Amino acid sequence: MTPAAVGGAGCSPETAAPPTVGVEEEFVLADRRSRSAVCRSLSVLPAARALLGGSHVTPELSQSQVETVGAVCRTGAEVEAEVLRLREGTAVAAAEHDCLLVPSGVAVLGRSGPPPVLDQARYRALADRFGPLIHGQGVNACHVHVGVADREDAVRAVNHLRGWMPLLLALTANSPYGDGADTGYASWRSVIWSRWPSAGPPPCLRDAAHYQRVVDQLVASGAALDPAMVYWHVRPSAHLPTIEVRIADVMPDATTTTAYALLVRALVGHAVEVVRSGEPVPDVPDLLLRAACWQAARHGPVGALPGTHSRDCAPTSVGRLIEELWKRVEPHLSRHGDDRRVSDWLGEVQLHGSGSARQRRVAERREGDLRAVVDDLAVEVP
Predict the structure, then answer these.
(1) What is the Cα–Cα distance from 69 to 141, expressed in whole angstroms?
(2) What is the DSSP string of 27-41?
(3) Residues 6+ apart with CB under 8 A from 164
(4) At the N or C end, where does the chain have fewer CB atoms within 10 A?
(5) Is the confidence at residue 321, as pLDDT, over 70?
């Protein structure tokens, strides 16, 4: 995120502006001819920064990736305009270097050339410590920051948010293909990412001091290089007054991304609200959350998931989980005029599936030609 978020979730609805929200998206750079991932970020980044501003486009671990960092927004229209601005500007820069900008959680056709780890001190340190684990980590997520000014509220709200992460992953799964083959998963990205020793669901945390102790212990253990490498599905930001939800694959289009970001804002608002009302935390075991996230990664928004938002964790259909989620977020969505946008997207997912289903439909229509999947996903150059 760029500027610090203010006007956090949970403020009095009569007096407060909508909580701030910001979106970060990671993308594959694919060669325009082969559609395979290609190591050109060092060429694309300067061109994109010249168009969009230096702080809004950043490198990633792999030289076949770029990341966009959105400005702080307050309305749905602002979020969509910013997501579109950054996608289109970066696509223009990519096209100047014979690349497509592809929003898929994993490179559909893999990559050509040498292992594309960016030659920066931090990434060299990651390679030294974690060895071959670093290769193949060129995966692409969507991170949403929501302003929560009080650190104690943010830490405790994460306890109420962690149980919803499997459903959010199911709704946003967008990486069925990898290295030119169908993986059988809806989100292969999340499976690859889960290999990091610091990735996964956050523990239940008593307060901000407890959070800091756990982070310090992870770093001291060697499982995390630094606090920024605490790769939990949802966490208080290490450097901003926000909660950061990190569970989603990058999504196929700006409309979907916007609806998802607004849903996350509403869910964070609900979580802060129940923290302040003293509602007990559903203390779901980490292992069950991991299992539920695996189930979401495997099947997407199809079938059932453990109901990890509640204490009994009973298997529940995705449709019913969406209904339970809607009860909690609808007041916050309606307050800011976001309910129609989010309900339309959730209805679309229930009818047609997530981005992974879209990718497979394109492949089926084109008799398995995965280049067509890349072309369908690629951000259009204006």
Answers:
(1) 12
(2) EEEEETTT-SB---H
(3) 267, 308, 309, 325
(4) C
(5) yes
